[in-house]
Design a protein that fits this description.
Elements: E1 5-8, H1 14-21, E2 25-28, H2 47-57, E3 60-64, H3 76-95, E4 100-104, H4 114-127, E5 134-137, H5 150-160, E6 169-174, H6 175-181, H7 188-196, E7 201-204, E8 206-207, E9 218-219, H8 228-238, E10 242-244, H9 250-263
Parallel strand pairs: 1-2, 1-10, 2-3, 3-4, 4-5, 5-6, 6-7, 7-10
Antiparallel strand pairs: 8-9
């Protein structure tokens, strides 16, 4: 079995960094991940040139949407801009030929009915022009999060199934987030797939903190709190493209890729 393994790189030269790291897929962010500003591609020659360069090199690109996006929110000042910037990122990702846009599940507040958050997600997806698939990612913390626990993801998927272009909605499984959320990693691929019907991407990250901490703190493979055998098992069982978000230099992430390849 051949596994597609990749890493997180800078958007200024994603194909060059993929070749340098000897990986077939990469993940980038377009613009500031903590900003509400419209996406701004940092590749000097523009989106069409990046698309052509990636196609020639056989490099697949994923785009991570800004962390500030929360389409579940009941606050109009958060929800409406979130929908707008998500659409902008979907369109920008489509222009570079990206495989998908990863977006966090978001949350409501303690005073909100969680059901409204799921409905807001349905409305957001139903209103998007999905020129590029969106991949909803499980999240690490938050007692009122839409995608922290598998049962919550099940409620979310029930709502999203009613949306037009639902076939353009996928799932991204993050191992650090699942560990931090308190979900048991043993068998998580099977349980997640039973809910979503699919796993389109794995974010393979070790965790700095203990299980159930709610802390989203990634660390290098084999250096954190997650059983290394479980990390490898997730990749094998998911049989999906796998991106490392373990940070550091290309060489640091390449060492993680080598660690994983050796065990696969």
């Amino acid at each position: 079995m051949t596994f597609e393994l990749g890493m997180t790189v800078d958007q200024s030269d994603p194909v060059g960094e993929a070749l340098r790291g000897q990986v077939p897929i990469v993940q980038i962010q377009i613009g500031d991940p903590q900003s509400w500003k419209a996406p701004k591609l940092g590749f000097e020659d523009g989106p069409e040139a990046l698309r052509e360069q990636a196609e020639r090199a056989g490099v697949g690109i994923y785009v991570h949407a800004p962390y500030v996006i929360n389409v579940a929110s009941t606050n109009n000042r958060i929800r409406i801009p979130s929908r707008k910037i998500l659409q902008q990122h979907v369109s920008a990702a489509a222009a570079i030929g990206a495989r998908g846009v990863i977006v966090h599940g978001g949350h409501v507040t303690a005073n909100d009915d969680p059901a409204q958050g799921y409905v807001n997600w349905f409305k957001a997806v139903d209103g998007l022009r999905l020129e590029c698939p969106i991949l909803i990612e499980n999240t690490a913390g938050g007692s009122h999060a839409m995608a922290r626990y598998l049962d919550s993801i099940g409620r979310l998927w029930e709502q999203l199934a009613k949306a037009s272009d639902f076939d353009q909605v996928g799932f991204c499984l993050d191992t650090c987030h699942a560990h931090a959320s308190g979900e048991e990693l043993t068998g998580i691929v099977e349980r997640a797939r039973a809910i979503t019907g699919r796993i389109d991407l794995v974010h393979l990250n070790d965790s700095r903190d203990v299980a159930g901490s709610g802390a989203d703190r990634h660390t290098h493979l084999g250096q954190g709190q997650i059983d290394p055998d479980l990390l490898v098992e997730v990749v094998k069982q998911a049989d999906a493209p796998t991106i490392l978000e373990t940070h550091g230099s290309i060489e640091d992430q390449a060492a993680d890729v080598a660690w994983l390849r050796q065990r696969l």
